[in-house]
Write a structure and sequence with these properties.
Layout: H1 2-25, H2 28-35, E1 37-38, E2 44-45, E3 48-53, H3 68-74, E4 83-85, E5 91-93, E6 96-103, E7 106-111, H4 125-136, E8 151-158, E9 161-166, H5 173-177, H6 187-192, E10 207-213, E11 217-222, E12 235-240, H7 244-253, E13 258-259, H8 267-271, E14 276-291, H9 301-310, H10 313-319, E15 326-327, H11 350-359, E16 366-373, H12 376-390, E17 394-401, H13 403-411, E18 417-422, H14 429-437, H15 454-465, H16 469-485, E19 489-502, E20 505-506, E21 509-510, E22 516-517, E23 522-523
Parallel strand pairs: 3-12, 16-17, 16-18
Antiparallel strand pairs: 1-2, 4-5, 6-7, 7-9, 8-9, 10-11, 11-12, 13-19, 14-18, 14-19, 15-19, 20-23, 21-22
Helix pairs in contact: 1-2, 9-11, 14-15, 15-16
Length: about 525
C-alpha cells in the first residue's frame, strides 16, 4: 500500500510538470492527451482513436438502422445486447448473465445488476420490455420489426428477471438478440424523446455518444461509469474521409488509426509497410448484382435470366477484387448456417443470354440503369458489368451515389439494377433469407429486389419455426433454388473482410459481421 502511494505521488508530480510545460509551449498537454498514458502495469491507455470511413452513418437508432456501416458506430460501443458473440461466434453473457429455453415458445433471462444507461436510468426488466415494446409497436414503423416479430410478449418478473414469450418457435432467436437489432435502449429516451435516438443514442455501453457533425465526424467518449471493464481509449472519432488514398495516407502518417474500407489495390503496399498492418478474416457477407423485379424490363424473368448468363463473375473476382474473397454461388456465405453448395449460379453463356433477350422481345437491344454506391471497387465492378452486357446488346448507364443517397434510392424502389451486399449479423440463414427475399421485407428492411413469391415466403417461414437443423438446411436449399430460377440476383462474391490499422494500435479486430471491436484497443 505504501509503495502504491509513492507511485501516486510520483505520477502527480509528473502530471504537474507536464501541465507547466503545457502552459509554456501551448501544445504539450494536447499531445499527451492524444498519445495516451501508461499505467503502472505498462499498458497504454487513454488518448483519441480515429477511425476513417468512406461515408457517414445514415442514422443511429438501432430500430431504424438497416446497414452495417451505421450499426458499426453504436453496436457494442454505445449500445449493448442481452448476450453477445465471442471471437468464435459462441454466445457469451452481456446484459443478461444467464438464459434458458423453457419450451419452444418461452425463454427466461437473468439480467445483470448494477448497470445504468448513460443518462443515469437504471437498467432492469422494465427497460428491456420498453425496448422491445417500442420495436414491435406498429406505430413505431421500425423496418426491424419483423426480425423479432415472433416475440409476442416480454414479461417482467422482477428487476433482474424477464421472460420472452414467442408466438411461434424461432430457432435463431439468440442470434438476433445478440445483434444490433437486439440493442437495449434507454427507457427514458423512449418515453420522453424517442425521435432524438436517431441522432443521440443512449445505451449502457463502454462508450458514450458525444457529438455528430453530419458529413464530418461522430465522436464517442469513454464511459467512466461503465459496469464492466472500461474502454482503454478516452474517445473514438469516426471521421468521414471519402478519398481512398487520403484515408490510407492518414493511417500511414499516424493522423488516423483504423479504416475498415481498404482498396484491394493497396494490399501489397500495406503489407510491405512498417507503419501499417492489415487485418483479414472471412466474412458473413455476400456481394451481388440485383434486379428490381417490379420495374421494366426486369419484371420479365427472361431478361433477368439473360443478364445472369451474360455476367462473367470470375473476371470480376480476379480483375476487380484481386482475388480478395471467393466466388459466390448464392446470396448466403459458406460461413452462414443454411448455406448450400448444391444451388448453382448461372454459367457464363453469351449465346444463351442473347437467345433469352430475343424471346423476351428485346432482340434490338435494351437500355438500363445500374446503381452503385461510391466505393471504388463497386464502381469498377459496375464498369466491368457495363462492358460485359454491351456484348449482348444491353446498354448500361451507371449511376454512382454517395452511400446515404444510394440507400435512400434503393429503399424507395427508385432503381432498376443495383450492386449491393448483405452483411449477415447473426451467422444464421434466416437473416439472409427473411430480410432479402421475404415479401414482408420489401424496401427498407432489405428486400431491395422487391421480390414477392408466396412459395418462397412460406419456405422461409417454415425454416424459422423448424428446430431440426438438417430440415432447416433443406428448406433453405429449396428456397434458394427457386430464387435462383427466378433470377432475382446474380451472386458475385463472398466477402473477405479487410481493415488497415496503424502499428501504434493494439488489440484491434473485426468480427465476422464486419463490426469494429474497439473496447480493448489501445493507442501508443
Amino acid at each position: 500500500m505504501k509503495k502504491f502511494k509513492w507511485i501516486q505521488m510520483i505520477a502527480f508530480v509528473s502530471v504537474l510538470v507536464l501541465l507547466l510545460q503545457g502552459c509554456s509551449t501551448g501544445n504539450s498537454a494536447e499531445k499527451e492527451n492524444k498519445s495516451g498514458k501508461e499505467t503502472a502495469s505498462g499498458d497504454k491507455t487513454g488518448g483519441e482513436l480515429v477511425v476513417v470511413r468512406l461515408s457517414d452513418a445514415t442514422g443511429l437508432d438501432p430500430h431504424f438502422i438497416t446497414d452495417i456501416p451505421s450499426a458499426n458506430v453504436v453496436h457494442g460501443k454505445v449500445y449493448e445486447t442481452l448476450l453477445a458473440f465471442d471471437k468464435d461466434r459462441n454466445f457469451v453473457p452481456l446484459l443478461a448473465t444467464e438464459w434458458k429455453q423453457v419450451d419452444d415458445l418461452t425463454w427466461d433471462f437473468t439480467l445483470r445488476e448494477g448497470v445504468k444507461f448513460h443518462d443515469g436510468t437504471p437498467f432492469n426488466g422494465e427497460a428491456v420490455k420498453a425496448t422491445f415494446d417500442r420495436l414491435l409497436d406498429p406505430a413505431t414503423g421500425s423496418p426491424q420489426k419483423d426480425k423479432l416479430g415472433m416475440i409476442s410478449e416480454v414479461v417482467v418478473v422482477d428487476d433482474t428477471h424477464i421472460t420472452i414469450k414467442l408466438s411461434t418457435p424461432y430457432a435463431p432467436l439468440l442470434s438476433i438478440l445478440a445483434s444490433n437489432e437486439g440493442s437495449i435502449l434507454s427507457p427514458k429516451m423512449i418515453q420522453e424523446t424517442p425521435d432524438e435516438l436517431a441522432t443521440h443514442p443512449v445505451g449502457t455501453g463502454p462508450f458514450v455518444f458525444d457529438s455528430w457533425k453530419s458529413g464530418q465526424a461522430i465522436t464517442l467518449n469513454k464511459n467512466n461509469d461503465y459496469w464492466g471493464e472500461k474502454a482503454k481509449v478516452d474517445s473514438v472519432v469516426f471521421k468521414v474521409v471519402p478519398e481512398d488514398a487520403t484515408r490510407l495516407a492518414m493511417i500511414e502518417s499516424g493522423e488516423a488509426h483504423i479504416s475498415d474500407q481498404v482498396p484491394v489495390t493497396e494490399i501489397e503496399r500495406i503489407e510491405n509497410s512498417d507503419k501499417m498492418s492489415l487485418f483479414r478474416t472471412d466474412g458473413l457477407a455476400v456481394e451481388y448484382l440485383g434486379f428490381n423485379t417490379t420495374v421494366a424490363p426486369f419484371d420479365n424473368v427472361k431478361v433477368r435470366q439473360a443478364i445472369s448468363y451474360a455476367i462473367e463473375r470470375e473476371a470480376i473476382i480476379s480483375g476487380v477484387y484481386n482475388n480478395v474473397g471467393t466466388l459466390a454461388n448464392v446470396a448466403m456465405s459458406p460461413q452462414v448456417f443454411g448455406y448450400s453448395a448444391d444451388v448453382k449460379a448461372y454459367p457464363y453463356d453469351v449465346n444463351k443470354a442473347k437467345e433469352l433477350l430475343q424471346e423476351a422481345g428485346f432482340d434490338k437491344g435494351i437500355k438500363v440503369k445500374l446503381l452503385t454506391s461510391d466505393r471504388k471497387e463497386r464502381i469498377n465492378m459496375a464498369e466491368v458489368i457495363q462492358s460485359q452486357l454491351k456484348g449482348i446488346g444491353v446498354d448500361v448507364e451507371i449511376q454512382v451515389m454517395e452511400y446515404g443517397s444510394y440507400i435512400q434510392q434503393i429503399e424507395n424502389s427508385e432503381h432498376q439494377m443495383l450492386i449491393g451486399g448483405w452483411g449477415n449479423a447473426t451467422g444464421d440463414g434466416d437473416y439472409n433469407q427473411y430480410n432479402l427475399f421475404h415479401s414482408a421485407s420489401v424496401g427498407a428492411p432489405g428486400n431491395h429486389f422487391y421480390y414477392q413469391n408466396p412459395v418462397v415466403d412460406n419456405l422461409i417461414e417454415q425454416a424459422r419455426v423448424e428446430t431440426e437443423p438438417r430440415k432447416r438446411e433443406e428448406i433453405y436449399k429449396e428456397a434458394m433454388q427457386i430464387e435462383m430460377d427466378d433470377a432475382v440476383y446474380v451472386p458475385i462474391r463472398n466477402y473477405e473482410l479487410l481493415a488497415v490499422y496503424s502499428n501504434n494500435v493494439d488489440n484491434f479486430w473485426l468480427d465476422a459481421s464486419n463490426y469494429l471491436m474497439l473496447k480493448d484497443v489501445t493507442v501508443k
